[in-house]
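Exercise (ungraded).
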Amino acid sequence: MSIEFDNNLPIYLQIMNYIKRQIVSGSLTPGDKIPSVRELAAELQINPNTVQRTFQELEREGIVETRRGLGRFVTSEESKIMEIKKEMAGELLDKFVQGMKELGFGKDDIVSIVTEAVETEFKEQERKSFG
Amino acid sequence: MSIEFDNNLPIYLQIMNYIKRQIVSGSLTPGDKIPSVRELAAELQINPNTVQRTFQELEREGIVETRRGLGRFVTSEESKIMEIKKEMAGELLDKFVQGMKELGFGKDDIVSIVTEAVETEFKEQERKSFG
Amino acid sequence: MSIEFDNNLPIYLQIMNYIKRQIVSGSLTPGDKIPSVRELAAELQINPNTVQRTFQELEREGIVETRRGLGRFVTSEESKIMEIKKEMAGELLDKFVQGMKELGFGKDDIVSIVTEAVETEFKEQERKSFG
Amino acid sequence: MSIEFDNNLPIYLQIMNYIKRQIVSGSLTPGDKIPSVRELAAELQINPNTVQRTFQELEREGIVETRRGLGRFVTSEESKIMEIKKEMAGELLDKFVQGMKELGFGKDDIVSIVTEAVETEFKEQERKSFG
DNA sequence: GTGGTCTAGACCACT
DNA sequence: GTGGTCTAGACCACG
């Protein structure tokens, strides 16, 4: 696990997003233990308090659970995970479509732009996997 | 002109985006005069310093020009505007496609999701224009 | 015996309260044997150390007694039990009345609120016992 | 403003409750400015981070609002405040009635106990105000 | 001036 | 070992 931090966004949010993506995309599955505060802090070379905050927020969103003395675990409610996934996708979608509309792009423009973009995006991906 | 401010983003950035969108979408055309710092500050009920900063940034990006004693104007270079438009669209697109990929969505998922979204988004729009 | 654990309160305290309530309400009577550490730990699926701590505290409060080789038993001093009951009730009462006062409720408000609450609370109870 | 801290509860929670009580009971009214982080920290002789946390939580509950660069203010939504008041009262009530029931007290016991308690509690209050 | 974030390091309760 | 809280002090962006 390693993250390239972007200076414009708080670290704790970047880690949150990273973990949420891992859960939502299936890299972490329900019931999995996540690293302890101290472990992750050491690994990412950041302060334990920052990791602590990350985890607290994730817990507040109901995506991880604490078992006292044992550590933290990905929630076992699959439905919660699907909910988060939909929420995250919906946010991305909204921001994109709204934004493009405000820039003056029409219905068909948007679809064709995206179609082209995913084509090249996922082609690169394939090339990478053969590398 | 009125903006609902989102507390998570600096106000000056929100105004910048608002003005850039107006220019890019054609509501403000090259050579148009934009409001003075005092005017805009009064209208939006915010600190003149904040408006000042907005304009400084817009100037730095080459989108508005100051003519001493006359006020500030939208740049008359059409090419600059097209450049901004592409840049803004590219950012939106990247963030969206990257994000969806990270959530585990595939090429076809993304295209179909967008297709559906624009369909409903622009349908609502039409209904509104008839209101 | 099963307890839904609340993550905000130490488990050992929750078990303590559970047992104290059983004693005070008469489900466990003076002289009754209580489960062994191992038994209770297995039943509640928790760490034996935690149960051990529970019992130590109960002993410290004089509510249970250890008879070497025989196990642990509810104290046979009835007066002790009455004392505990009064103490627990007093705590509940104080916290409630103080709290309501601090929220700005008056004397009569509090009485009528409680009257209504017990009415519905015990009505539900009756319905349940007929189920 | 001064609070006697109880060592068993986190400081930030105690301050939260204190402020919530002030709002709910009308000592702080909608739109009022609350002290800045640094001010309150100095006044209560605690670390600014602890105050910061308090305010963040209050904000999350929607009971205070931040206006960037200006400070924090009690929410102007009266309904939100009523909601909080009901929630806090409901919690107190539930904990009390449930607790008393579990101790084996009946409907009428509870009502008469409360009646007596408020009588003495508010009599003391009166005596104090004449002091 | 305001709040937001982060580091460094400490102590505590719980399992 | 685990997480939860707190202090001390710093830097930054914002208005």
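Further reading is listed at the end of the chapter. For now, observe: The longest helix of chain C spans residues 78-102. Residues 79-130 of chain C form one domain.
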